Backbone:
């Protein structure tokens, strides 16, 4: 099964309350995407996150840029709120690819290269989900003093998040 994430949480308003309504309104005003399409393409896809317990493993594929990292922390925060000990959440998030000095993202890779990345996946721990939840809360609050303090800590299995937060 595949969940396609079609949101850009790093652009536009975000909130702890009524996130999808807020985002749908903003996406409509900014890009002209109808609320019905947003419901189908974004909200229905996001609802798949509530059913991860039916899978033996969930593999998240993300890139290293700010947009992907903000989307990732939202998703990990959502998973964290439902996490069960037997959930296996893995991450594939390369910053570089051997033999590709100007690597820009997963879309450049062929099936052989993508398949090779599967062997490099990182199993995330509960601490990683907690870190992502804290990062998402900080992103929502947008308090740069707190974010600066947060940047001094160890980012464990999410080292690219540190670079993204610095870019933010």
Residues:
């Amino acid at each position: 099964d595949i969940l396609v994430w079609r949101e850009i949480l790093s652009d536009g308003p975000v909130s702890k309350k009524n996130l999808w309504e807020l985002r749908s309104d903003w996406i409509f005003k900014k890009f002209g995407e109808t609320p019905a399409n947003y419901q189908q393409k974004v909200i229905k896809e996001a609802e798949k996150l509530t059913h991860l317990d039916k899978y033996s493993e969930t593999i998240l594929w993300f890139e290293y840029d700010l947009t992907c990292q903000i989307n990732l922390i939202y998703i990990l925060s959502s998973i964290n709120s439902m996490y069960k000990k037997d959930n296996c959440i893995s991450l594939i998030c390369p910053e570089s690819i051997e033999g590709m000095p100007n690597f820009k993202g997963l879309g450049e890779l062929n099936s052989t290269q993508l398949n090779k990345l599967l062997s490099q996946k990182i199993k995330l721990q509960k601490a990683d989900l907690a870190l992502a939840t804290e990062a998402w809360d900080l992103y929502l609050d947008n308090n740069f003093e707190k974010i600066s303090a947060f940047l001094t800590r160890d980012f464990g299995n999410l080292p690219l998040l540190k670079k993204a937060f610095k870019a933010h």
